[in-house]
Design goal:
By secondary structure, the protein is an alpha/beta fold. It contains 10 helices and 10 strands. The protein has one domain: Metal-dependent hydrolases (TIM Barrel), CATH 3.20.20.
Length: 249
């Protein structure tokens, strides 16, 4: 089973139309992907409540394949906690996605709220995927710090360092028990290093499908398949670890 742990199911990126749900599923089928964790895009900029509801509606048609994640704006303080609890109560979301770079917050600036979000996530056993790999708000080290603040939470580096921070991603995922690395962007050699350093059980597959068409999904699947890791490690990265984190076993 292949699970894409990092994808976007939204109808637009500002004025640019994006893939429809039907096109998104067709891309998954073309590349042999069974399920995808899907996030909003415009919810990072506009009313997150509205976009959470829109995302839940898009995913509802195929709940076994489209796994929606909640987005909140930690800058709103208590209102973000209220929205998180509202979405959890709906019973359809399986995780949380935060994007410090686009949402313009550094975790340390909002530590009290970030800790509360992570504590609620831990209580409900929901993983939190953070965008990482881009300064000034979302370096891999900053996201690693969140995992240290709340050891009971499952924190995921959304891009495993992207390019400049892949060495840090490997070391942090190795050293912090509750920190995982989603290889959405790293090259095959970087993926091999992350797996060798952190352990295959700490690595997830992601593509950013939805920001682009099926080719980005095919390219990032190839990055894992040509990383030179074992068949068993490949199986874990492409789906086994995601099933465990999402409690799909």
């Amino acid at each position: 089973m292949i699970i894409d742990f990092h994808a976007h199911l939204d109808d637009r990126w500002f004025d640019q139309p994006l893939m429809s749900r039907e096109q998104f599923i067709a891309a998954m089928d073309r590349c042999g992907v069974d399920a995808a964790c899907v996030f909003t895009l415009m919810g990072f900029f506009e009313d997150s409540r509205r976009h959470n509801d829109l995302l839940a509606g898009r995913a509802a048609a195929l709940p076994e394949r489209l796994i929606p994640f909640i987005t909140v704006d930690p800058k709103l303080g208590e209102a973000s906690i209220d929205e998180l609890r509202r979405c959890i109560a709906l019973g359809v979301f399986r995780g949380i996605k935060l994007h410090p770079w686009l949402q313009a917050f550094a975790p340390s600036m909002l530590k009290k709220t970030i800790v509360r979000i992570a504590e609620i996530a831990a209580e409900k056993d929901l993983p939190i995927l953070f965008h990482d790999g881009t300064p000034p708000y979302a370096t891999t080290f900053q996201i690693g710090a969140v995992a240290r603040w709340v050891p009971a939470a499952k924190i995921v580096l959304g891009h495993a360092g992207l390019a400049d921070y892949t060495l840090a991603a490997a070391q942090l995922a190795r050293d912090i028990p509750n920190l995982y690395a989603c290889v959405c962007g790293p090259r095959p050699a970087d993926i091999a290093h992350i797996v060798a350093t952190a352990g295959a059980e700490k690595v997830l597959f992601g593509s950013d499908l939805g920001l682009s068409d099926w080719m980005i999904l095919a390219d990032r699947l190839d990055a894992v398949r040509y990383a030179g890791i074992s068949d068993e490690q490949t199986r874990m990265v492409l789906g086994g670890n995601a099933r465990r984190l999402l409690r799909l076993l």
